[in-house]
Amino acid sequence: MPEQAPSFPNFCRPGNLFAVFLIAELIVLVLTLSPDRIEGFDWRRLALLSLFAQLLALWVAGLLCILGPRLAELHRALGVSLAYAIILAVVFCGTWAAVWLDSSVALGVLPPGTPPHSVVLGNVLVGGLVGAAALRYFFVQLAWRRQVERAADARLQALQARIRPHFLFNALNTIASVIRRDPAAAERAVEDLSDLFRASLAKGEGTWSFGEEVAICKRYAAIERLRLGDRLAIDWDVDAIPSATTLPALVVQPLLENAIQHGIQALREGGTVTVRGTFDDKTRTAVLVIINPVAAQAPPNRSGTGLALENIRQRLMLRYASRATLDARRESGQFVAMLRWPTQAPPGSAGNESSHR
């Protein structure tokens, strides 16, 4: 099942933490640089007020970070009210503590004779106004992020829906080409094809493991080998990539399909498709390279591959933004497709799905 979208801002996120600290510092600067205080500007007072505001911000962010998951389980209005109450309570208690410390240690931050209750009341009022505006900002930002994610998921599903019919059409053509000369082989191919689509359609969230992707590719290659025979050979060397790492479903298979349909098939003598994988433990990045020979007279941009490559690039962008790339080029009589994507798979989880074949 897809992961449920959060209903409460995550104050543990670095971006939200930075926003809380920035808002606190902006309040200090506005109050310190107000027209009635600019003439008596004191750097020491600014530093002490900044320290006080940042400590309050730290307490607010810390409590909302810890209690956020519990607040998210409550009714929206109740959760927001409790978060607002936490802000007011932190400002109230922090201000009382600061006033007591200022009078006890004689820091000189407050003018002599200033009533403590007026300072506390003023800070609570400011904290209440700013806290309400800040909570509104974080919830609007959360709603915007959820809307963007839903739009991205819808677009991702639409892109994947364009792949499956194309895959099915080519596979059925392959089976039709061998059904008369080898009915048993065609029957096995139909069984393989049904297994492929059963596994593919089961992934409603659009992602699966690299091991499952490799298994899909090998079954597809078995179907194509029925049609091309000895003209097609595939050299698998992908053990370096952990099979448990995830990636969008049916990303590698279209690259292999392009290599066979627009590379090997066009060669009279056939050829070998090389599939090589590497994994960088330091950056947790997987790299898969698919290399196939191309005909000498083939145009630089092979017909039929542009849409598939652009489709994959869009799906990678929606899933990983700029952290994943797909580079494709023709060089020295070969076509090279290099797929790079980030992963958090645990080291040493390479499985048998990616073994040599």
What does it look like?
With 357 residues, the chain is α+β, with helices and mostly antiparallel strands. Helix content is 59%, strand content 13%. The chain has a five-stranded mixed beta sheet, with helices on one face. A two-stranded antiparallel sheet has the order 1-3. Helix 1 runs antiparallel to helix 2 (43-73), helix 6 (210-228) packs parallel to helix 7 and helix 7 runs antiparallel to helix 8.
Task: Note the topology.
Blueprint: H1 14-32, H2 43-73, H3 76-105, H4 116-178, H5 183-202, E1 207-209, H6 210-228, E2 232-237, E3 246-248, H7 252-264, E4 271-280, E5 285-293, H8 305-320, E6 325-331, E7 334-342
Parallel strand pairs: 2-4
Antiparallel strand pairs: 1-3, 4-5, 5-7, 6-7
Helix pairs in contact: 1-2, 2-3, 3-4, 4-5, 4-6, 4-8, 5-6, 6-7, 7-8
Main features:
357 residues, two-stranded antiparallel sheet, 8 helices, 7 strands, 59% helix, 13% strand, disordered C terminus
Helix-strand category: alpha+beta
How many helix segments? Answer: 8
What is the topology, as strand order, of the major beta sheet? 2-4-5-7-6
Which overall shape is indicated by the principal axes computed on the Cα atoms?
elongated
Average pLDDT level: 80
Elements, N to C (H/E): HHHHHEHEEHEEHEE
Beta-strand segment tally: 7
Considering DSSP H and I runs of 4 or more, what fraction of the residues is helical? Answer: 55-70%
The biggest beta sheet, please?
A: 5 strands, mixed
Question: Which band does the percent of strand residues land in?
Answer: 5-15%
Q: Name the quaternary structure.
A: single chain
Q: Low-confidence spans: pLDDT under 50, at least 5 residues?
A: 300-304, 345-357
